[in-house]
Amino acid sequence: GMAAPEKATITLDAMKMLDPHQLKPDSIETERIITVLDETVAKLELSSLIPRIIDSLDRFADMLGPEITNSLIEHQKLSNEIEHLLASSEEGDTMTAEEQRGCLCLLEQHLKRSVRNVLRLLRANPSLCQALKYEAWARESPAEVFIKAFGEFRNFMLERLLTSPVEEEEKIQFMEDISLQIKKNTEAITALQAELAAAILTQEEEIHKKDNVIKDLKNSMKDLTKDCKAGIQQIKQEGKKQQKEEQQASQARCARLQQDIQQLGAQLNALVLEHRASELALRKRKCRVEMEIVNWIQKYDTDMGEKQAEYEEVHAAYAEEKAQLSLLMEKHAVLLQEYSQIEEERRLCQNKEEQALKELNTMTLAAIRIQAFWRGYLVRSLFKSKRKKKKKGKSK
After folding, report:
1. Which one of 30, 249, 288, 289 has the largest count of C-beta atoms within 10 Å of its C-beta?
2. 40 in a domain, yes or no?
């Protein structure tokens, strides 16, 4: 009676916490990761069938086609070479250990490349892959174990990716609460058992009451365990149902994406044809431009040859005129010196003439003044003689 409310609370929390309808993918990265894991599982299953296919190569030659058959034959040759190399290394062949390791590493690289090539060719034909998978072949034990383990890893990754961090923390907290409740119940049982052992010596009624309490607690734990198992079973069923729905939706998306890939491939081919035509036109134009460039270069060379010849003629005439100019400059220097001497003589003559003219002007001016003075003197002398005669006449 005392554990009933706690049990009801825990049951409600469990149903709320582990509700499969809350597990929804919230990003395209989740789908991409699951797609990669599914493709890896398919590749592992297909690669595990390669040895069986090679053993029955005659029966499937027509179905596989020449390209896949040749790839499988080449793969078998590489496998035989590796087995032969390993057997020779165990028998102590003449090759050194380093050479054997190098050959083995090279053959392993070729073998890996061969496996990838075979898988690519097989996966390019989905109907062939389905036909090969339906063959009643038993895989080797290690391959089957690995594929099964990888499938469990894929399911674990899907569960983890579909669980958000908050839900993960809530689930962890829920499990911790359950563990704490179990621990508390266990401690209570231990305490009650101790009290029961002590009360046996004193009271039978108290022992009976404590037995009832212990029985109630055990019943509560059994009910809790039963409820948890029922909830987990329901969660698993809902998860399988949701997984099936998601798988169907994923297949539909894959079909749509395959159709988009085909459309894009057609567009790519059209663009390639268009670009090739454009490239051909550009190549023709380039050839025409190159021919024009060659013609222009030839014309340029011809013009430059003519210009060079003309330049040489002009340069020769210039050199000749320069030589004549130097002779004329020498004559000009001599004439300039003679001209300077003549100019100096002219200047001296001009100075002498100016001096003589100046002296002549001075003498002329002096002669004029002397003549004027003489004329005045004569006039004054004449006036004086006339005055004297007048005075004498009056006195008489």
Report:
1. 30
2. yes
